[in-house]
Design brief:
Layout (H helix, E strand, L loop, with lengths): L7 H13 L11 E6 L10 H5 L2 E11 L2 E4 L12 H15 L11 E7 L3 H13 L7 E3 L2 E3 L3 E7 L3 H6 L6 E4 L15 E5 L14 H16 L3 E5 L5 H9 L5 E3 L2 H13 L11
Parallel strand pairs: 1-2, 1-11, 2-4, 4-7, 7-8, 8-9, 9-10
Antiparallel strand pairs: 2-3, 5-6
Helix pairs in contact: 1-3
Length: 282
């Protein structure tokens, strides 16, 4: 974006972001690799609230509308200034610049899950052009292989799988499904598998998780990890009991709308572990 003037709407949103992260901002927190902010844009400060808690994954629903990639839950909630660039890509670039090349100083890559809500083909064509403008911060796959960078983009929802896979220089990967387990899809192309919790499990997060379901969860995660894929469930119970089960089963990304609560839970559980220890579901 060097040399390009920013739209006034983008400038206004950036000003709000900078003020929110100014002298009164809380001290930096340690990154939480397991924390995924579901529908992140619905929080008071998109992206910033999640980063303040140490989250390493955020989710944005994107609509191609009037030639722009707008972020919102439905078409009725779209606003001209709330673009993917304004809310996520540009602030992430600024953060990476400020922190010496990473979203968190010396921290892991941060995932930006883009859930495409409009036509897969046309939306990906527009999205690919925008992502290329942020090549300085994005993980990339070329004929030489995968190179991790500060931010890794994963495309969910309406995925133009063939077009994404065909790109010679690709700044995004694909959010897979359970059917991708055991397939020949390379982990560089499909680094995640995601599933609806309710389509796999009957337990709703109250009381102890039944042993057969606990075993099924751990077996599924182990299968994905053998293929070097991460695991995420949407619609999982957003409770401490469920978080404990997911953490103990080594689920890589724990979906939540309760940012502060999950952040505190993970810091408590992880800080209590001996070096190299495994969280317990109890």
């Amino acid at each position: 974006m060097s040399g390009r003037r920013l739209p006034s709407s983008l400038c206004a949103l950036l000003a709000v972001s900078l003020l929110a992260a100014g002298p009164g901002a809380p001290p930096a927190v340690a990154p939480l690799r397991q924390a995924h902010s579901h529908n992140d844009y619905e929080h008071a400060r998109p992206l910033l609230d999640a980063l303040e808690q140490g989250f390493c994954s955020v989710e944005a629903d994107v609509f191609l509308s009037g030639g722009k990639l707008l972020v919102g839950h439905t078409v009725f909630g779209l606003r001209a200034g709330r673009t993917l660039e304004a809310l996520y890509l540009y602030p992430l670039r600024q953060r990476v610049k400020d922190n010496g090349g990473r979203v968190y100083p010396k921290g892991p890559t941060v995932f930006l899950l883009i859930d495409v809500k409009t036509d897969a083909r046309t939306t990906w064509a527009a999205l690919a052009k925008v992502l290329a403008r942020y090549s300085d911060i994005l993980s990339v796959t070329t004929e030489r292989g995968f190179r991790e960078n500060a931010v890794t983009v994963v495309i969910s929802g309406n995925r133009d799988r063939e077009a994404i896979a065909a790109q010679e220089v690709r700044y995004a990967a694909i959010d897979g499904r359970l059917s991708d387990l055991g397939s020949d899809a390379p982990a560089q192309l499909v680094p995640w598998v995601s599933a609806s919790w309710g389509s796999v499990f009957a337990w709703r997060g109250a009381g102890k998780m039944p042993k057969p379901e606990r075993a099924k969860l751990r077996d599924l995660v182990a299968r994905a990890h053998r293929e070097e894929r991460l695991v995420r469930f949407w619609g999982a119970p957003d409770t401490r009991e469920a978080w404990g089960e997911l953490l103990a089963a080594e689920v890589d990304l724990i979906n939540t709308d309760r940012l502060a609560e999950l952040g505190q839970f993970l810091r408590e559980r992880l800080s209590a572990l001996p070096r190299g220890g495994q969280p317990s579901s109890d």
